[in-house]
Amino acid sequence: MVNINTPFTADASALRLPQPYLLFLGDTTEAGFAKTAYGLRDWAPDKCTGEYALPEATVSTGLPALTPAEAHARGARSLLIGVANSGGVIPAIWVSALIEALEAGLDIVSGMHVRLADVPGLAAIAGKLGRQLIDVRHPPAGLTVGTGRKRTGKRLLTVGTDCALGKKYTALAVSQALVARGLDADFRASGQTGIMIAGGGIPMDAVVSDFEAGAAELLSPDAAPDHWDVVEGQGSLFHPAYAAVSLGLLHGSQPDVIIVCHQPGRTIMLGSDSYALPSLEETIDLNLRLGARTNPAIRCAGLSFNTSHLGEEEAIAVMAEESRRLGLPVADPIRGGDQFARLIDSCLA
Amino acid sequence: MVNINTPFTADASALRLPQPYLLFLGDTTEAGFAKTAYGLRDWAPDKCTGEYALPEATVSTGLPALTPAEAHARGARSLLIGVANSGGVIPAIWVSALIEALEAGLDIVSGMHVRLADVPGLAAIAGKLGRQLIDVRHPPAGLTVGTGRKRTGKRLLTVGTDCALGKKYTALAVSQALVARGLDADFRASGQTGIMIAGGGIPMDAVVSDFEAGAAELLSPDAAPDHWDVVEGQGSLFHPAYAAVSLGLLHGSQPDVIIVCHQPGRTIMLGSDSYALPSLEETIDLNLRLGARTNPAIRCAGLSFNTSHLGEEEAIAVMAEESRRLGLPVADPIRGGDQFARLIDSCLA
């Protein structure tokens, strides 16, 4: 492995997206497909100037409807494709709107599978106008292998019993809570939606394995001693498909603190029916054991439960019971309250 | 992670190289740069028809010197670049020899950093002649995420306390020993030199992280119940740069048996001066714990020591002492002998 040099030569840095955004809704008629736009409205309202939709669209974020030219005049710097469709493709009916955005002075940001540069004609027009086409699913060039060197500043990583149960949400809520307490904190995004919200980051699951820890090192660089990087976790060390992503991110992030994310009642790993979810104790223990390799001082501050499927009383009872059993704070960041305040206290202890 | 689809659409399979090879030595004058050619001569002599070198070269493998046309007449199917240089580039002085090989009916196989298709003119000539340009550093297209599904057949994976201490060598020696005992066994290559020796495989460190376990699943597919796949390990779960590669390979290989590879006396991780080597006990324990996720029956058959830097007596004493201490066979496959026979017995126990 040490003989494998990077195929890139440029110095790498995390992606940086031009903000604020004009959210593009295409011709979408199903609210479910506009998840990205809603997420940006909810988590980064100050970075969203307005929305732009084709006449066929019926969904709306409730933000002001603006043309690309109007949005640019109000400070927008990119058109962000805020919708998905089942194929992850860019339909021909969207293309004239994308060109209109480029001509209005906006870059284009996309999380679709297809690369913007592969949309016929788009790259030529962007090149002529000096505009950027940014695909957030694709990692930056110039990534290298990790060094394991201890970096300055403090780091928190959200980890999980499984995929898709609140690691991004928890990291966003924790970074907001730290800032609300007057601390210097940044959310560090490791997946495409998080990258759009943060305005930058690295899509860790798309990074070549040999560079996975190195990319994580780049994602949370040296910082002031009292600065917190709150890193969005990915996957699970227990997932038979994605553990490599989780371990590279854990090693490279060298977190001082982890929060274990879980959805009470989930018993089977997502997409892998024959795999049981690990216990919370196992999840804490394995993350601490592996994380100690690059940060011997790693500790678990508590747990974040996604209780959106439970009623208020039941959710509170489940969290209280697990908190008592494990001797750690357990909170649902969406519900907030005293439990969440205790979880933040524990992060800072 | 589960929302990230593969950017590829074709069905994937491991790389397959056209054999036998004509080993190309370029204009090499330093034996150290011809390591790949020597490795092929030593490990795959039946797959090497001869060697071909420019007049400037002073190194030789001792195999017959053949022109591409002569080699093709004797059955060779590809020219394999058997040398490296510090930049990993293909010098202009080599190009006419590569073209000569294409014209003689040989494909070209390379492990250089630069892609063969990026050598000016080469792709056009290969296309015209219907010849293949194969870069073994680059994974096959069509890789997908792992499933964790239990596969048929038996699997052995070599793992290590560190990089570059004999995982490939051990896997080759073990697969040869199994065949010598009349068993049905295949060496499964996960790095470029191993791929050239085996005539196929997947360069696991170049695979996108999300597909790492899936690629390992593809590398050792379903097989007959008594068939052994002996999988070449990569890196170390304890390496701060490469553990993601090691874990994806461990999960996807779902080995029944591991052999822990080590170099006695090595105390510091390669390329990471501030990281101490893990103990043998820790290495066995962590590999078994993580490997049990996809194969609960995983066990450690013993250890393979690289003792090339020690005298015979000292090597034997070190291995005997560690074998006693750990209660497991310890052998150096290069030295072979009773110790190695006991290690193979233990694999089959």
UniProtKB/TrEMBL annotation, chains A, B:
Span of domain D-glutamate N-acetyltransferase-like C-terminal: 145-337
Domain D-glutamate N-acetyltransferase-like N-terminal residues, every copy: 60-139
SUPFAM superfamilies: P-loop containing nucleoside triphosphate hydrolases
Organism domain of life: Bacteria
Pfam families in the cross-refs: DUF1611, DUF1611_N
Gene3D superfamilies on file: NAD(P)-binding Rossmann-like Domain (3.40.50.720), P-loop containing nucleotide triphosphate hydrolases (3.40.50.300)
InterPro entries hit by this protein: DgcN-like, DgcN-like_C, DgcN-like_N, P-loop_NTPase
Protein name in the entry: DUF1611 domain-containing protein
